[in-house]
Specification:
Length: 131
């Protein structure tokens, strides 16, 4: 993941420089500067995650320029969870929350009440697994 981290690091630098130049060039448009700064921060988060995963897991066979297909044989691909109901709860919660923004505050709170357990289920369902 070293190459991927370097790629997103370049994207971070590009958006950061673009935000600085755009902010200096157009002093009367804070929305564009904020959008470019937000893009730089988001790509910095991806860069941090990929760098962390690279340092945690080391090099992969894909990172080796002299590597062959057989080098990755037998390596675990990852953890694939069985079927679960949390995506349905999360989707219903998002839909009801969005309708609550339009139709009324009471429906928004019901949607948030459905959304929070769905998201917590996603986060903590397989929290004890070490991959």
């Amino acid at each position: 993941m070293k190459r991927e981290a370097a790629l997103f690091g370049g994207v971070t630098v590009f958006f950061g420089l673009a935000a600085l130049i755009y902010g200096w060039w157009s002093a009367y448009d804070p929305a564009g500067t904020a959008a470019l700064t937000f893009a730089a921060v988001m790509s910095a988060l991806i860069t941090f995650y990929l760098t962390y995963q690279y340092r945690r897991g080391g090099t992969r066979p894909e990172d080796d320029g002299e590597g062959e297909m057989a080098d990755g044989a037998g390596a675990p691909l990852g953890f694939f969870p069985p079927s679960t109901a949390y995506p349905v709860f999360t989707a219903v919660g998002v839909a009801v929350t969005a309708l609550g923004v339009v139709l009324g505050l009471w429906l928004f709170f019901i949607g948030v009440g459905v959304l929070i357990p769905g998201v917590c289920g996603f986060v903590f369902e397989f929290g004890d697994r070490r991959t």
